[in-house]
Amino acid sequence: MLSHHQFISRRLLLSVAGIGLLSAAGCQLPSHDGGDGAAPAGILPSGPAASTASSPEPTPSASGPLPAQPRAKTNPLFSLAADDRLVALTLDDGPDPAHTPIVLSILEQYRLRATFFLIGENAARQPALVREIAARGHHIANHTWSHPDLRGIPDAKVRDELLRTSDLLGNTTGRTPTWFRAPGGDWSDASLRICAELGMRPMGWSVDPQDWARPGTSLITQRVLQTIGPGSIVLNHDGGGDRSQTIAALRTYLPVLLDEGYRFTAPK
Ligand SMILES: [Zn+2]
Prior knowledge:
- Helix content is 39%, strand content 10%.
- The chain has 268 residues and is of the alpha/beta class.
- Strands 1, 2, 3, 6 and 7 form a five-stranded parallel beta sheet that branches. It has a two-stranded parallel sheet with strand order 4-5.
- Helix 7 (189-197) links the parallel strand 4 (179-180) and strand 5 (201-202).
- It binds zinc ion.
């Protein structure tokens, strides 16, 4: 649990982030989007191992950009450090040519920004769709190349799954992913370490309506609305099968949450 001091510090950071948000110019999605200005509060890692303060300084290089700086291994971020109605929507297992464009249009309609955890082999088949997601202001994140259970494979294979996907997404969008999510949320020590070595941070979730199992639109909607709260990270899927229930649920619960004063951010 947070100590009083930590709590005050986070409130302070939120205040600073709020000022940053107010002064931010040229935000692409201003209406219901938490904006990048809120991200510093949202990405505070939760574990004691999370500090990167002792990371060595990068070695200056005269020839081109520095390589990604290895970070200290962190525990996954399961929720944002928000004490107001700031939440994050994440969409896994795409891009999917049938469902992702519909999800994009819904996000456009409500003017909010999400994080898409893409599977490399899907992204390789849909480069234009990957670029479209990024062009609309959403964050492109790494969800492995082939969606394996990372707990049961050698470290070299884990590294290949992550690195190949980051390379592809970087080459496709011009931006290297900064977030990684293990398939099924099945983290392992190796995947967390390799995630850090590749310059990414791990993101979990705190609201899981199990939409992948297609329990019905009303149940997906109900589970999200009943469990969401300040700082929630919501897991939904735009790929991996028929996602029409997820799409219908998004159309139902997003306007309800916006009416209730929720704002959405894509943590940087
Ligand atoms: Zn997945």
